[in-house]
Amino acid sequence: NKMKPRGPSPPVYPGALPLIGHAHQCYGDSKQSNSFYRPLYLPLLNQNYTLLQFLGGLATNIRLVLNLAKCRILYTYKILHFEVLQYFIKICIISDFWEILKNLSHFSLENGGVVEIWMGPHIMYMITDPDDSMIVATKCMEKPYFYEFATEMFKNGLITASSTTWKTHRRLLNPSFNQQVMTSFLPEFNTQARNLVVSLQSEVGKEPFDIHQYLIKQLLKTVCQTSLGLATEDKTIDVEYANATEDLFATLAERFTRIYLHLSYTYAWSSLKTKQDQLLKITREVMNKIIYRRKEELKTNNKTQNGTSAKDVKFQPLLNQLLELADTQDAFTDDEIREHVDTVVAAAYDTTATTITFVLIMLGTYPEVQNRVYKEIQSVLGNEDTDLTKDNLPKLVYLDAVLKETLRLYPPSPCVARRIDSDVKLKNYTLRTGGTCILSIYGMSRHAMWGADADQFKPERWLDPSALPSNPNVFCTFSLGKRNCIGRVYAMLAIKTMLVHVLRKYIVFGDVNSVTTQFTISFKPATASQLRLELRS
Length: 537
Ligand code: HEM
Known about the structure:
Layout: E1 22-25, H1 41-45, H2 51-73, H3 84-90, H4 97-110, E2 114-119, E3 122-127, H5 130-139, H6 151-154, H7 163-173, H8 179-183, H9 186-200, H10 211-228, H11 239-257, H12 264-268, H13 271-299, H14 318-329, H15 334-365, H16 367-381, H17 397-409, E4 415-419, E5 424-425, E6 430-431, E7 436-440, H18 441-444, H19 488-505, E8 506-510, E9 517-519, E10 523-525, E11 531-535
Parallel strand pairs: 3-7
Antiparallel strand pairs: 1-2, 2-3, 4-7, 5-6, 8-11, 9-10
Helix pairs in contact: 9-10, 9-19, 10-15, 11-13, 13-15, 15-17, 15-19, 16-17
This protein binds protoporphyrin IX containing FE (HEM).
Main location: endoplasmic reticulum
Function: May be involved in the metabolism of insect hormones and in the breakdown of synthetic insecticides.
Subcellular location: Endoplasmic reticulum membrane; Microsome membrane
């Protein structure tokens, strides 16, 4: 009876092999749990596992392997469909994670919006139904084990914090990201956008080049500036910090794709961990220095009216706001302040840089859309090289539509995940405790609710609200529920400001069909030369 499959024979999805043992539809609201599939592999991934438990886990795993072997003989039951050895060898390196993720998202879309994936004995759910996604995003506040790879970097930062810490800290941080604070960043966004225009000058009239690298550098500077509020001449955040931050992202991505490094034991002995420690030392030293100096400045009241040491800064940087909260409400320790700033910097610069890259690629591909955006900018801001202000922002309606359409088709975080700590009842299924749930933002962006042209780039769809899907959860680029993106307003303002300045000065040429994409820990273009630039006459 133990070998009895749940529901009718599940259709095997070949695209998911060999990483995924088996992906199939969820059948009905069955809570029946098959003891044969207890998640034996999962405890091994738990970072808090002791050596004894690890050995115990190994023993159980051996039992599992034997069971799997038995299972192959009983193939007619169609319980499991992968070669045991192949599984253990091939999953060690995920070669094309993005392809797997896309395939599974489409599989989910075609099969009712909720599918089960058995990674060995561990159950993962891929959800593309917007209502079910919202239920999970609201009920499950804990992140699954792979977020812990970033814990060393961000600890109590919002992305990796446990739900208890997250609740308190998010409440304290929310006001620092409100519309008023964000619009006070606009002059800084304009300054940084002008710097970007100048740095791009050297590419004008040349062969296609890697604009994404320019944007990464510029957005990192912008985010550091608004988070830390350094004076223009201050060089504390320099190339070394920027490179170390980028390299830290790369180490995260590498660990993610090498499954044998998911185990804290193997990772602790790896050269990747040594590299990560060295990089963390660099970024921590830089950040600690800034925090210490700012604390001293605030203490001795050696500050300007706006509370920063930088004479030319007209906004209240995040760091000052956090120090104030620590001072007045005893809200954070120094380490927590650094973890929040590090998290915000990391969450902000890569996502915004990638979005601008894709908007420019789309505009390069569709010259008529680019012309329309340019005309709108001219009509709103005039021919002068003026700053973008909070008053003319709402008038850039078409630019807003282009941006949203790009975010829909190229979401910088194509999926988010949650740990299922207790059974979750969805519209038609129940997700079982112990599993991991992946909410596919990529999948929901291509849901049938968007219409038959869901795959196409059509900014116009955003101009007619009645033509948009009636379910607002289906546009979830910034995630869903309470643990959604805190920097949404920041992102929209920064991106629009950069685009306005770049498009006023340059015409971009590109072809989205020649650009491939990749996703490890972040989503980005895989093609190195994405665009060509010409000066606007
Ligand atoms: C186009 C740009 C952006 C996109 C698409 C985006 C998307 C997302 C998504 C999908 C999440 C949920 C992550 C998860 O649950 O694993 C998230 C969280 C977060 N984002 Fe963004 N983001 C963007 C820009 C920004 C910016 C500019 C900032 C900061 C200024 C920021 C700060 C954060 C933070 C701190 C979190 C964690 C929130 C929490 O758990 O309470 N993001 N973002």
